[in-house]
Predict the 3D structure of the following.
Amino acid sequence: MRYTGVVFGFVLMVASGYAQPEVKAGVPNARSVRVGVEAGVQERVEDGGALYARNCARCHDLGLPRTPTRHVLSGLAPERIVAALESGTMRTQGAERTPGERRAIAAFLTGKAVGDTPAPPPLRMCATSAAPAATNAPQWKGWGLSLANDRFQRGAAAGLTPNDVPRLKVKWAFGFAGDASAAVQPSIVGGRVFVASVPGRIYALDLREGCAVWTFDADIMVRTAVDVGDAGGTRAAFFGDVAGNVYSVDANTGRLRWKHHVDDHPIARVTGTPKLYAGRLYVPVSSIEEVAGADPKYPCCTFRGSVVALDAATGAVVWKTYVIPEAPKPTRTNKVGTQLFGPSGAAVWSSPTIDENTSTIYVATGDSYSDPPAETSDAIVALDLKTGGIKWSQQMTAGDAFNLACGGPDPTNCPDAKGPDVDFGSPPILVTLASGKRALVIGQKSAVVHALDPDDKGKVLWSTRIGRGGALGGVEWGSAADTERIYVPLSDIAFRQRGLDIAGMTPNPDVGGGLFALQLADGKEAWHAAPPGCNGRPNCSPAQSAPASVAAGVVFSGSVDGHLRAYSTKDGRIVWDFDTAKEYTTVNGVKARGGSIDVGGPAIAGGMVVTTSGYAQWGGLGGNVLLAFSVDGK
């Protein structure tokens, strides 16, 4: 299960929604969030602190894995918490509370009532809104830059030399209004930065100045990066939301082209960035049913991960393939009489990888949610690009069935296997070795990095352990690879109990982190850069959960401690280190601060390095800023 970024889970915070399948063309998008009591309805409500203590504290004050602490929740807008309790991750628990009680809990946690969140200042719009530059301009498309998901910006496209990197300075900063969390991967295409904010607003910003060309409001939170390309004669931008909707908007204007709901499961979502290729959009589908499965009254579990191919011009479904071919069936009744189901799970959390040579799409899958464990969970699965048929699958950890009941206060719905929850949150990277042989290289939450043979049904070529691994450990969101090595950031985040006056857990500043360079040919370690450490910073972890990016002879890697560092690809020496955890004067006038870097990594193109900063999911350093760096800040 992938929750380091809310599975981004925002395990409590994220609203999932129940949008119905639809395809619309040429109409503006409308957005609405239900946040509480109907106008004119009077309700006597118990104190919010008492409601929280009785209904919420047993999870959020005990430091359970992937469960945000009270400290984290306190930094959210009250509207976000109410939305989560009404239609999101915590809707099962929220359904047992009245509208007034949900508002009271939100007010207790945040110290603010619904409606008290101040309106942001007017957005600074660009003086001109000319069409983006040609597609051959330097770009960082979508999640992994290339079809191979290697996160490797080659040659002149980076616009940087190794000597330039130590001179990088902030050129502009953009503040996201609302929640204290910024963790989405930006994209750079045609002189624009495309990026989503937590509430679901998509921004197209000028790369050099940071002014806004247009904005678009999705129905709900957007976790994906934005892929951009030509579709049906139009330059289009594509992304997904946490309600399982996929959108196509005009990349020049932000006008909605179409929207399609890709999965009818009520808590399905799209967290991996859709991949545009040859007129089709390939969409990975995940879910947060692992969270719902913790409730003994929930009939765990019926979701199956899938890949959906859409016509990029119209949004029509070309094919859909479940990575667990067998539909869930009734298995047993739990001790409170709830019917359970299986097999389930194998969510596809990350962006697909495209193999043009063999017309194949590769995806990495999550763990199983219930018994019996699926053979295609914790696996690399190869599908035919044209038909969606499964060509082969290679499972890296068998029997990994897990949901949030495992280790929680009520283990009723925990599968017999009880984890270990060490699935894949990062995509496979397709590389060609010096010998001419090809390989798929990928890191796992087990802290093992694997190389598989895509031309021999996923045969394992080598496996190398780099850490201890675990539910939030190992390789979380992704690696980068050049022609010789794969560069792997290590999470291995750990926690320790706070004082009794502060609820929940705090990151352990002495455990986790580091960057590893492994030889693509044999998996042997070329070098290892140890984490520099937190140096006494509160709520700090040295874990490196965010995906790395490589360009200009350096590897950029963000850390939960708030630093973005550049390491020499030759020996791992740090050649540039910028502490993002500070306040910024922003181009749009929003008060902004940086913090932990997680989930999304830097985009590099045209002499610019762009990253989000501020992710407090695990009690770390919250923030809400997008930073753009250039040489000497010019």
Observations:
- Confidence is low (pLDDT under 50) at residues 2-41, 499-503.
- The radius of gyration is 22 Å.
- The helical segments are 48-55, 57-60, 70-73, 78-87, 91-94, 99-110, 289-292.
